Amino acid sequence: MCGIICIVSHIHDTSVDLLNKFHIFKKYISNRGPDYLGIRSHSLETCNLLFAASVLWLQGKSMAEQPFEDDKSVFVYNGDIFGGIPDNLREEDGDTKLLFKMIQNSNNIPIVLSKIQGPYAFIYFDKIELKLYFGRDIFGRRSLLIGKNHDELVLTSVAKRSLEYEFIELPSIGTFCLDLKTNQLYIFPWKYRNKNFESKLFEIKTFLNKEIIIAKELSSEENNKYLTPSIEQLCLLGEIKNLESKKVFEILLNNSDWLSNVIKLKSLLEEAIKNRIATQPKYCKNCIKKRQNCNHSLIGVLFSGGIDCAVLALLADKFIDNARPIDLLNVAFDEVKSYQTPDRLTGLQTLEELRKIRPYREWKFLEINVTQKELDEQRKQHIADLIYPLKTILDDSLGCALWFASRGKQESIISPCRVLLVGMGADELFGGYTRHRAAFKKQSWLGLHNALNEDWQNLSHRNLGRDDRIISDHGRQLRTPYLDENVVEFVQGLNSWEKTYPSNDVPKGIGEKILLRSLAYYIGLKKASTWEKKSFTIWIKNSK
Ligand SMILES: Nc1ncnc2c1ncn2[C@@H]1O[C@H](COP(=O)(O)OP(=O)(O)OP(=O)(O)O)[C@@H](O)[C@H]1O
Ligand SMILES: NC(=O)CC[C@H](N)C(=O)O
């Protein structure tokens, strides 16, 4: 993952002053991109600017050093293009150079961004017009914070607590543009208005104490039409009432419409996973410096053993050279019970299932055991900075779990992979939360439909920025196949009853995410397809 930052200073800082300011952020920015660190500064009449970027090289034949600069512009980019641009162009030059050129050659940056598929956070300085563009992709898969103090504005992938700055997460509601001549701030909203648009706009206006001009009229609100299942669909769901799991999946997969959705989902997920595996140099973390060919793991899966990551791991197998292991990173905290947590137990059972289905593959299961002492130390000294500006106990707990999991360290063994596949987004897309069951109980399909919409629209600001800051800290790239644009488009286009059935007529562990579970069953994960979602344990004993 790359780390990007821009400091806009309205006082007469010298470039040395600006560099000193950058030093406050340097450690966390550098951690994100271990392959290169570049810095540029600029003096304008109205302000001084510093740009810096650390690079985790993933695309292109050779590493693209950042910031990108020529006489027209400066560009820093943390992202991955997976579609929207011909593959051969990306393979040659890499996505940073391509996007830089596309933005430069266009007079409409938001349109360029709307065409690319993949996560991003970026900052682009137009030297001619003296405009600073910045933003995050529509799902918010990459972090970008906006911070201020009396004289400065900072845009950065990551900050830390207790600085002389205050920060908020930049909302993923469109592309922002700061006119450095007039100091006016504009937003180019996405084509579809998210219900959070107004509240997020208000939040950032209040934070900056500044008007934000909406640069383009919003199109009408998304068509969230509510339908009821047809008689045929109700009959199908009626058939699976009170049955054991094997029977449920057999009945569903015997239905041609249901099967066709399963097959479509499989093919879209495979394409997303294939892209996310292929798009990287063929060196592991240890061998990349010397460009030394190796057979070490390139891909790891954050592996709780639950259905979301089990499906990812099994589908990934097809696209990874047989000689390379796949690392399954499983974290556990409870030292009192010898780390036999629900996730460890499920992880080991799903590992057994993967080994049976794909016996020739080396599945490297890393038992990442974290003592209370280490948890307390790392959390206080380090992880809380990455979570910032979020601060709830849930952020704290999830953040710690993800940080230790993605560090990939089991005693002296450290996973060498540079890319991690993670199951984020599956619960929002397929309806996996307990609250979906409650909504269905209260208000049937309408309640469920509203709850799913609500969760989907909250996803960009609820956890994705935080997860990006946490995982990238180990110089590894977080990739989320469930949040691939084509997967999202397909699943969002389905009716609620085609993807989840959190009804009391069907046991827990089957009804939730029933489409994804059907896919798991279909590809052979007979046990993992029925694992119930475990409620997340709050590990943090003392949150002060
Ligand atoms: N203990 C853990 N060790 C490693 N990774 C984890 C752990 N817990 C969660 N994760 C990662 O975070 C993602 C989201 O967690 P979550 O618990 O929602 O999903 P899951 O366990 O795969 O499936 P399910 O949602 O059905 O439980 C997982 O897909 C996995 O990638
Ligand atoms: N990891 C990053 O965000 C770096 C940018 C670009 N995708 C590259 O691979 O070089």
From TrEMBL:
The active site is at residue 2. Keywords: Amino-acid biosynthesis, Asparagine biosynthesis, ATP-binding, Glutamine amidotransferase, Nucleotide-binding. Pathway: Amino-acid biosynthesis; L-asparagine biosynthesis; L-asparagine from L-aspartate (L-Gln route): step 1/1. Residues 2-254 form the Glutamine amidotransferase type-2 domain. GO terms for biological process: asparagine biosynthetic process. Signal peptide: none annotated. L-glutamine binds at residue 95. Pfam families: Asn_synthase, GATase_7. It comes from the Eukaryota. ATP binds at residue 302. One of its GO terms (molecular function) is asparagine synthase (glutamine-hydrolyzing) activity. PANTHER family: ASPARAGINE SYNTHETASE DOMAIN-CONTAINING PROTEIN 1. This is Asparagine synthetase [glutamine-hydrolyzing]. It comes from Rhamnusium bicolor.
